[in-house]
Amino acid sequence: MYPFIRMAKELVINRKASKLSPTGTHVSRHMCLPWDIDLWAELNNGRTLTIYDLGRIPLAQRTGLIGVLRRQRWGLTVAGVSVRYRRRIRMFDVVEMRSRLVGWDEKFIYLDQSMWRKDGACANQGLYRTAVTGRDGIIPPAQVAAALGANPTSPPLPDWIRAWITAEDQRPWPPKQD
């Protein structure tokens, strides 16, 4: 089940937090609860993606994006994600999540999220390809930035993100059936 109560808590906690620039980093803390674990008593890989929502949505709130979405009647969607899992997160472990917008291209917005353990080790990292949507499809990110009062020109995307974009562009869609 989606963690509606946890999301409400994050939105309430962050409603009066200082505003962030569109590329600012939102830092939050989360505990791995019993319903977040798998058969090996560690954070389930699918649940990791859901918990990342608890960082992305407050990030959107703190940057002012949620207000723009409401005024324009736009929505948000995830168009792709690549996650690296490197360290275990066990039940009742508390992690620090860092969420930030890295940049955009003509169609998509790229977000970097990571979870850090108390020992300073990065447990996992997700690269998200997201989009703002309207009635007629995807809203160009430059238009979204302008609606936020930000520079419509993206910061330069790091080489590793550009390489991922290139790889995703080569991936067949729809998938080929053998």
TrEMBL record:
Species annotation: Primorskyibacter flagellatus
SUPFAM superfamilies per record: Thioesterase/thiol ester dehydrase-isomerase (SSF54637)
Protein known as: Acyl-CoA thioesterase FadM
Cross-referenced PANTHER family: PROTEIN THEM6, PTHR12475
Domain of life the protein comes from: Bacteria
